[in-house]
Amino acid sequence: MPDPRFFPTAGVQRLVDIAAVAEARFEGDGERLFTGVAPLQTAGPDDVSFLDNRRYADALSESKAGAVVLHPAMAERLPVGCVGLLAAQPNLAFARIALLFHPDPVARAVVHPTAVIAPDAVIGQGVEIGALAVSGARAEIGAGCIIHSHAVVGDGVVLGAGCRIHPHASISHAIAGAGVVLHPGARVGAEGYGFATTAAGEHVTMPQLGRVILGDGVQVGANSTVDRGSHGDTVLGPGTRLDNLVQIGHNVHTGRGCVIVAHAGISGSSVLGDYVVLAAQAGIAGHLTIGSKVRIGAQAGVMNDVPAGTDVIGSPAWPVREFWRSIAYLRKIAQGGRAGAEARDRKADREP
Amino acid sequence: MPDPRFFPTAGVQRLVDIAAVAEARFEGDGERLFTGVAPLQTAGPDDVSFLDNRRYADALSESKAGAVVLHPAMAERLPVGCVGLLAAQPNLAFARIALLFHPDPVARAVVHPTAVIAPDAVIGQGVEIGALAVSGARAEIGAGCIIHSHAVVGDGVVLGAGCRIHPHASISHAIAGAGVVLHPGARVGAEGYGFATTAAGEHVTMPQLGRVILGDGVQVGANSTVDRGSHGDTVLGPGTRLDNLVQIGHNVHTGRGCVIVAHAGISGSSVLGDYVVLAAQAGIAGHLTIGSKVRIGAQAGVMNDVPAGTDVIGSPAWPVREFWRSIAYLRKIAQGGRAGAEARDRKADREP
Amino acid sequence: MPDPRFFPTAGVQRLVDIAAVAEARFEGDGERLFTGVAPLQTAGPDDVSFLDNRRYADALSESKAGAVVLHPAMAERLPVGCVGLLAAQPNLAFARIALLFHPDPVARAVVHPTAVIAPDAVIGQGVEIGALAVSGARAEIGAGCIIHSHAVVGDGVVLGAGCRIHPHASISHAIAGAGVVLHPGARVGAEGYGFATTAAGEHVTMPQLGRVILGDGVQVGANSTVDRGSHGDTVLGPGTRLDNLVQIGHNVHTGRGCVIVAHAGISGSSVLGDYVVLAAQAGIAGHLTIGSKVRIGAQAGVMNDVPAGTDVIGSPAWPVREFWRSIAYLRKIAQGGRAGAEARDRKADREP
Questions:
Q1: A306 and A329 co-located in one domain
Q2: Domain with A175 in it: what CATH number?
Q3: Touching check for A140 and chain B: CB below 8 Å?
Q4: In angstroms, rounded to a whole number, what is the distance separating the alpha carbons of residues B65 and B50?
Q5: Distance between CA B227 and CA B210 in Å, rounded?
Q6: Which residues have CB under 8 Å from C351's CB, separation 6+?
Q7: Block means of pLDDT (10 residues each) for chain B, length 352 residues?
Q8: Which chains share 3+ C-beta pairs under 8 angstroms with C?
Q9: Are A206 and A285 in the same domain?
Q10: What is the pTM of this model?
Q11: Chain A CB contacts of B104 below 8 Å
């Protein structure tokens, strides 16, 4: 069970209610009560657990969980006495169950006395503001927002309803929709990297006069950075989620629901469609257009536009299939021994 | 026009004054007034805009801007009635115009009552210190500095005149010149990654006894980190600019005006000449010497010294031209069709 | 000598005591006094210096240092009159000497009046808490901890004895052992990147219900991020050290003494053995097992399990030897003579 020091629960739940939020099928007594969620390895008979990766199927067989969310195809692996909660998408079903036991925090309408709120800031109903948080002049903080300790909301910033700004996050020059989450240390609206260089080598700052527009439900991970537009805006579309330590350059636009994984970076003025996935440590050069549902592999380096629906990988990035073919070729060469490679080279030189 | 909630302007400007700061040529009425700057797409007849990338030439034709900064070679693309401000380097010219409308912030000589300033800190004339900022013992903060909310200036740190330390930035064990800018969350002077490992596997910290020396005009991007010297100093030369999420190891030296782009890293004790460009996500191993004006491509991994004036790319890094030749070769192999590749492979299998 | 503004010393030391902590051999007057440590280039006759990299042997010959720690094999390079402190592992010996002059800071039992400490937090003996630091409800802060300005210790967090939490670091949902160090801006315990996506493309947060467990002596570098477990815990084994800007995903486990260099990342649920080295900008995909003493080269991308004791590099990662063989092959192709390559290219242009 989650450590109660950190994770208070909403209390016991009936199996029938659990199955309902999960849209899962089950057989058995719907009135049975469960106290929480837990991993397969540590779950007890009062816990709900889940399996969404075949890799862990052995843990299922040995689990003492009272109920397990899983794909119907895995149902036969359930231990005796364990209730199966069958769902086509077990991770989604389990997320909804976990949220039933551990709902998102709700703002307590309290402003800590050490917070520094500008007199002309507009604080919505029920807003919670933690110790030593700062709200700048004319900022508008929507109803039900939680501003944690040491967060800084800059002058004029607008936060929609129900945003959560975690410790040490800062946001400036930005308009955020509802339900936006900034994780600890996130930096939204900082001055981008814009300058012109004189013939003598002096870098002259280009004033960065745009904003950051965060759609509803956008999340920015811990210590990630989203620069404001240089002119025009930097825009993260609704539901886009940045993992930790991500860099978003000025004037970047993402569509809906993009997924940008840790250490990935998008250079200035590139435009992403909807549901683009940029895996860890990958990068996109500036001024490119990436179509919807493009998936970019880890450590890829994208230097050209990518049409919608394409999967690319490598640095420079190219289609996944060709990338792996080139890797396979190189491995054969390398394992083939020096002699083989050199023979081949000599031949290559002679060949047409 | 830039959002006035975030970007107050210095007021209307005459065309003749605008052209003067930009060192741009124009034809027409020098007394004409302009109210601000804006991108081509949204500029109106009272705005100055600019074009510095041919990619956006179509936007020029359709722009309603009153004046546009651009290269003389593009002048014929100007829409009717739009004043051309002709400059050999349009981005530089436009930067100066934008600074005319939106000059760098000037410190207001105010210390917020919640700031915590050590009694023996030396605060220069006209310094502005924001809410909850901290200045340590014996720190010296030069005239006209702006220390934003939640910034921390450590014991003994020296800041030259006109520095700006943004929210949540911290600086310790450092001597900074004039006009240094630390963006939000920048970490200057933290203990580097130095330790010796015993035969039993215990890591014993090597005390990091050097400083960070920041030349005039150095900028450190959001959430970037500059470790102090292990012994001797870490030095960033005048005008060097780090983008966001950059890592600078202990004892690194950069020359003047180096440009280190997001997610790039320089390992301990490497020395860079002047005007080196390290593109995004690239890395330089430790104890290397990189000559002046070297340009290192995105995601490159530099493992050897690089002579001045060279362009390198790849991981491990090598000269740009040879890198692309090897990529072209691999692509030919991979695209050459499975049949071709397999034929070649079969041949390889038969070879010694 | 280290700048006394930043590095107070513990006072002069006798050569015999210096040699004793270093377990080094020397010849000469054990009563001779030394005032500090310094690099070879700047050391004077009262300083102890060291050489641990042959690259800098010339600096040894010209050094004015009174004593130098070095490997016996280098002893003949000592300048006349300079005492040799001979040690099999000079960097370790020197670390111990530097710690003699500059011991780790000791907590002063002072809580700054601006710190915000929850009434039910449990503060151990001799704890030092800086300006504007925050300790949450029910947090337990062990004896002798130093919580610097602007650090935030979350509700319920447990810190063992002698931890140091630097400015702007935050820790939540975590249990830390003794002597743990969080460098400035480190983020421990933030919500990981966990969500399930509906058919309509909506990302539903998976509540992250695990903790972070930090073993004794763990260090987390500046602006690095360690996500809490999604369920189950994220665990860093005793003595594991993260450099700056490192990302550790949810449920990752590391063994003892792992070394994770700047910009490296480990994706969710991967498990590392003891003493694994992950070099700069390298990444490990999720759900992998990396054996003890594996060394992973800079910028490597690990996509498969790696058996203990193996060295890998490349993206995707493979054994070091084969990687270099493939690189050598590609270089030969690319350099293979401009003439040869161009001939090949021309031919390719004519081909179907």
A1: no
A2: 2.160.10.10
A3: no
A4: 9
A5: 9
A6: none
A7: 92 98 96 96 95 88 96 93 96 97 95 98 98 98 98 98 98 98 98 94 96 98 98 96 98 98 98 98 98 98 98 97 94 70 48 42
A8: A, B
A9: yes
A10: 0.95
A11: 205
Q: Which residues pair with C244 in a beta bridge?
A: none
CB-based contact B209 C263, cutoff 8 Å: no
A335-347 average pLDDT score: 53
* Residue A35 belongs to a domain: yes
3-state class (DSSP) for residue A182: strand
Do β-strands A170-171 and A152-153 pair in parallel, antiparallel, or remain unpaired?
parallel
Residues B124 and B135 sit within 8 Å (Cβ to Cβ)? no
Domain ranges, residue B46: 13-101
**Cβ contact B183:B203 at 8 Å:** no
Q: For residue B56, what is the domain's CATH number?
A: 3.40.1390.10
Answer yes or no: do C225 and A241 touch at CB < 8 A. no
Same domain, A175 and A263: yes
Write down which residue in A101, A123, A151 finishes a domain: A101
Partners of residue B149 in chain C, C-beta under 8 Å: none
Same domain (yes/no): A233, A274: yes
- Residues A327 and A282 both lie in one domain: no
SS3 B24: coil
User: Are A178 and A278 in the same domain?
Assistant: yes
Q: In a 3-state reduction of DSSP, which class is residue B197?
A: strand
In a domain, C175, yes or no: no
Distance from CA of C293 to the nearest CA of A (A): 24
Domain boundary among C58, C77, C101: C101
Number of domains in chain A: 3
Domain shared by A309 and A326, yes or no: no
Q: How far is CA C164 from CA C219, C246, C249, in A?
A: 9, 19, 23
Among the partner-chain residues A112, A131, A184, the one whose CB lies closest to the CB of C170 is A184
- Write down the ipTM of this complex: 0.94
Determine the residue of chain A that is closest to B94 in CA distance. Answer: A206
pLDDT of residue B318: 95
pLDDT single digits (tens) C14-34: 999 999 999 999 999 999 999
HEC readout, C257-326? CCEECCCCEECCCCEECCCCEECCCCEECCCCEECCCCEECCCCEECCCECCCCEEECCCCEEHHHHHHH
Residue B142 CB contacts under 8 Å (≥ 6 apart), including other chains: B124, B127, B158, B159, B160, B161, B162, B163, B178
Q: In this structure, is residue B90 part of a structural domain?
A: yes
**What are residue B77's phi and psi, to 5 degrees?**
-85, -5
Phi/psi at B298 (5° precision): -55, 140
- What local confidence, expressed as pLDDT, does residue B338 receive? 45
pLDDT tens digits, residue range B262-316? 999 999 999 999 999 999 999 999 999 999 999 999 999 999 999 999 999 999 9
DSSP assigned state of C55: G
Residue C241 lies inside a defined structural domain of this protein: no
Helix spans in chain B (H): 15-22, 57-61, 90-101, 320-335, 337-350
Q: Would you state the structure tokens that stand for residue B155, as one six-digit string?
A: 């014991």
Residue type, C140: E
One domain, residues A72 and A202: no
pLDDT tens column, A112-161: 999 999 999 999 999 999 999 999 999 999 999 999 999 999 999 999 99
Contact A210, A229 (CB under 8 A): yes
